[in-house]
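User: ok so my PI wants both of these folded by tonight, can you help

Assistant: No problem, let's get them done. Here's the first:
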Amino acid sequence: MKVKFLAAMGLAAALYSCDDQTTGIGQFVADGDQIEAFAETYPVKTATRTLDRVYSRSSTAYLGKFTDKEFGELKAGFLAQINCPEGYKFPERLEKIDSVTLEFYYNNYFGDSLASLRVKVKELETPFEDDGTHKEWYYTDYDFSNSNDWTYKSEPLGLKDYSAYDKTVSDSIHNTSDYYPSISVRVNEDFVNRLSEAAKEQQREGGEDYFKDAQTFINHVFPGFYAEITNGDGSIVYIEDIWLRMQAKYWIKNSAGDKDSLATTYIPFAASKEVFMSTNFHNANFDSQMQDEKGTYLKTPAGLCTEMTLPLQKIFESEHYQDTLNAVSISLPKYKNESESKYKMGTPSYLMLIQESEMIDFFEQNKTIDNKSSFIASYDSKTNSYSFTKLNRLISRIFSEIKPDKNTNNWEELEEQHKVLLIPVNISLDSQNNIIGVEHDLSVSSARLVRGTGDTEDIKMNIIYTRPKLH
């Protein structure tokens, strides 16, 4: 429905609440008393899309398995390397390294805190270096366990039965503010002996120093490992820190200097952004969501997103090719969570709207939101919806690219070409709350949105535009 803003105050309110960078299909400059302002709405078509793979480069690793009656089975494992501090030196007069653990620390998890799962850690047979040419390693569908690119030692590096809530730790410790839950995997004796020999080699006269930097350590001592779930079901842990912790013994003199004694120290090496880490997910069985005629879905990790077809033809044919688009916005209502699951998934905090053709480059090249081709909306619990604004910049950019006219007859093809995706993401902010980083949301979450048919106004695009008065 088209509405003319007749009152002067109404006109001012409409214009000054619009985008501060008005753009349009047609561009013009006019005095305030020489323009007319209008509002119009267009129905928008939405649908559910599967995302079989997403770019998962993240500082968080995920581990576990959870089966849900609505979304099927979700399984997560990860491959990681350990960083060696540059120029690291072991204590003088080292006796040996007598035990080593791999420790996976987490503050959050999804699912049954008491569910028992077993993690198997496999050591890589040969080293590798991430030189930036293998983007596929960072996609969630990449199978490190079965790919021919990776070979592992026959003996597991370690096995560990665990639950997200560690029942071996007392409740009083669990409730302390400095408690940091972890899964601690004791590694096999062969690895401990190899690590011990490499450490003592550093102290031999003329010996090789395999701890001088991360790549030397990776090439000669520990190429990396893959952690996977081999038994159990019920939880996914969100791992924030990974440590290789060594218990070492070395000789020291007593205070009188006449007797040697053994001292014990713990030496931690961490996984860090300087070395490789990637999580892979298996997530399937989305038939019921794809067939839902009233809703579209968001599901993370590596699951579902919502596709939106922009009503480009209707906008153009409504005589807007001579208008300035002052504001374009879309609100996406969310249905109440009606899942019957005992462990209800959270709601994605942020959605990114981006053209499908630009999605891959956006994540692989670590781009950020520009409010021209990519936009962010946060979930508003008060309205139970996500709202995007400033989309006039996107619409105008598309029209400037396709340069349509009254004779354009391939609108269906053009709208297909310029579809946008609504993708759950996490964002990073600077001290001024500017968005400086965007990555796929890999936590366990979901939402069911109202579906737009493109014919009714279940989902609608709201446009405020201006045009010169005709004299």
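One down. Here's the second:
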Amino acid sequence: MSVKINALELENVKRIKAVKIDPTQNGLTIIGGDNNQGKTSVLDSIAWALGGDRNKPSNAVREGSTIPPLLKVTLSNGIIVERKGKNSSLKVTDPSGKKAGQTLLDSFIEQLALNLPAFMNKSNKEKANVLLNIIGVGDQLAVFNHKENELYQERLTVGRIADQKAKFAKEQLFYEGVPADIISPQELINQQQAILAKNGENQRKREKVTQYEYQVKTLTDEVARLEQMLQKKNEELNKATYDLSMSKTDALDLQDQSTDELEKNLAEIEEVNRKVRANLDKEKAEEEAKGYKVQYDNLSLQIDEVRKQKYDLLNNADLPLPELSIDDNELTYKGKKWDSMSGSDQLRVSTAIVRKLNPDCGFVLLDKLEQMDLKTLTEFNAWLEQEGLQAIATRVSTGDECSVIIEDGYVKEDVQSAVESSKTQWKAGEF
């Protein structure tokens, strides 16, 4: 059974003169009043009484009072906590009458329940870590977060490369109407060499014609000059004439081939190949970009799977509130991160988490509850009652929603009687 506060009796603490309150066991006990009347002093007194000297106000004694503070808190487990005297000494008495100390109180009092702003002012990551430690999945979630971060960084790198490759591919020139592969000039060179060889052979045959013409002329002159050798020379002449005739016949049928087209093709082939290379480079860049895009998509799927495992882990955990979760190492409630939550939702989340920290502590102190409108206040009270949780809160208001109203250091209905009583029978340390 969680411990709650049954009664408060406070004197001369900060702005409090004399206040006695019996808080509601489940739900809200709202301490109302105008500013600077002593509302927050009540919460500070409870925190000091139950939480120890670490929570003692810096100016604990009420200004103008010569009487030291007196604090008495009666708890639902029968323990009575008192601080009184010049040194505000602690006295803890259990139901059997035995005395104890702060160690006993610390066993069932949650420090953050006494100082909820200490939790609310933690960083987003610190608040998330508190919740993770409560539900016992911190180590597993850390593994998932590490894996997700690794995959995210890898995907980020791959994505950048993919973008660079795609941009590079897009900037590459592409030429229409050129072959898909690099052209080899060797075939054209072979054709050119064959034609040049043929033309050389033709030239040698032409040279033979000239040679035979010279020979005929020489022999003709020799016949005229050497009649005596006519017969012999005539035979030679006849033969030479015959050879000449045959050579002329061959020469007449010869036709030289032009290499201009081949030379033009050779001149153009490098330009064609340049365009082909450009097209091949573009295709390669596009393929690389596609490859990195596939890697990026695969990494995205892996990240989604890790996130699903994280969500499953959190959804199956014993969370203090429905719709409470952790995303990117931050608390989320109803899909909103801390800085996007309403003030009332922040209080509800904080209260639930602090309750979960120490289930033996059945109460929480809430300051400045004026941020909730009446409708939200009613809903919050219903939730507290449902959870069996006691909340003692302050609110700048004197409306009907307030359980008690503090005015000038007193509960309002006790103001006049306290003034009159103090004139005749006020004694230090008594109500």
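The two ends are 31 Å apart (CA to CA). The chain is about 55% helix and 15% strand. Good luck tonight!
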